[in-house]
Amino acid sequence: MRPDDRRILGAVLAGGRSERFGSDKRAALWEGRTLLSHSVASLRAECEAVVVCGGAGAGALAETGTPVLADRPGPDLGPLGGLCAALFRAQETGQHAVLSAPVDAHPVPHGLAELLGFPGPAILAGHWLFGIWPAELAHDLERHLLSGNRSVLSWVEACRARRVEFFGQPPVNLNTPQMLAALEDGALLGEGAQLHALRELDFATGSAQEVARAVPVEIPVAIELNGIGYAVMMATPTDLEDFVAGFALSEGLADTTEIGEVHLHRADGGWVARANLPQASMPRLLERARTRVSESSCGICGIDSVAAALAPLAPVAARPAAGPQAIHRALSQMRDHQHLGQATGAAHAAAFCSNHGEILLLREDVGRHNALDKLIGALGRQGIGRDRGFVLLSARCSQELVEKTVRAGIPMLVTISAPSSLAIARAREGRLTLLALARDDSALVVTDPHRLF
């Protein structure tokens, strides 16, 4: 069945008790609208019809024309009771499937139905209530609930739902007013930042608590000058016209007053920026386009398309084995190994640490990418298994550092500074365990595919 042939019923799962939130989450405001209205609007864009599965008290919150369904086969069955009611409604009205979304997780991924695919049940990995469910599962789910199973995970496993990875901005579970406030604040930053729900790992107790954190957006920007693919730069997608003008000046190609209008076009996963330079710039432009090499081993300079910059990343096969105490131990020892950094205050370090937290090798360089390349090279030259420990970096966690670690087959990366949005997405794609903002007492668990923490 082709996607455009499907008849889909959208179901907003809105029957939670909101105990941690302190008030009814369905009526909480985000960008001047209720969370319920955001969810309904997102599903309406993809579905033939939408229902609200909200149990008692949801009727007053449903938008005009949006039916409210009571849980089935009875009340107080959690989100599965609402999903069961939606499946039976889909059977009654002739829809092939139900596309579900919880009311308290935003933003809803754009193109959710196409992302999840059909036929067969499927869920977003890590967000089990975003799912697509064949209507024919209605009686199976009812029997599942009547047998005493209320866990969403139990149903996911029982119906063998596919887990679909999503590498865009993940939805944030709005369990507290603080999480909602963080989402509101993040929206004010526009395309410059994304809000991610991460976990803060306490080294003393080994426990992790969910926190919301804004991370800067990092995407590839392909720069085309006079029709020539000049370079792809990783950048935050704000003020891109200024970026192109300043880039052309700093490259010695033209003065900012000589640059024509900058035209911006969205590409898959990035932007293409096109501009014309004066004819006098052509010799310099052609020479630099032929010979342009990276001033550091960032792995991006010289690439001439967005697609090349976002080439598929094969997942790491190895599993990490280091725990909180090992990370804390490595952090406490790293400074003593940074001889160049101590002497100059201007060098990055990349350390390979055993699963017990012992620093086995450390390399330094003025460039954070170079330091990591030196470390990976040293591991190979000395015959040290790259899958038998983790990397600790004294640097910002950028996309290229994540990719280098994944390609080296190292299962875990710990960085001193914060990640970018693309670093998070690529770590998820590469199934890399990633911790950031590592300090004396804690670190942020950014990705944890093997549930180590």
TrEMBL record:
Residues 10-114 form the MobA-like NTP transferase domain. The lineage of its organism: Bacteria, Pseudomonadati, Pseudomonadota, Alphaproteobacteria, Sphingomonadales. It comes from Qipengyuania oceanensis. The active site is at 298 (cysteine persulfide intermediate). GO terms for biological process: Mo-molybdopterin cofactor biosynthetic process. The keyword Magnesium applies. Belongs to the FdhD family. It is found in: Cytoplasm. Required for formate dehydrogenase (FDH) activity. Acts as a sulfur carrier protein that transfers sulfur from IscS to the molybdenum cofactor prior to its insertion into FDH. One of its GO terms (cellular component) is cytoplasm. This is Sulfur carrier protein FdhD. Pfam families: FdhD-NarQ, NTP_transf_3. InterPro entries: Cytidine_deaminase-like (IPR016193), FdhD (IPR003786), MobA-like_NTP_Trfase (IPR025877), Molybde_CF_guanTrfase (IPR013482), Nucleotide-diphossugar_trans (IPR029044). The keyword Transferase applies. One of its GO terms (molecular function) is nucleotidyltransferase activity. Keywords: Cytoplasm, GTP-binding, Magnesium, Molybdenum cofactor biosynthesis, Nucleotide-binding, Transferase. Its main location: cytoplasm.
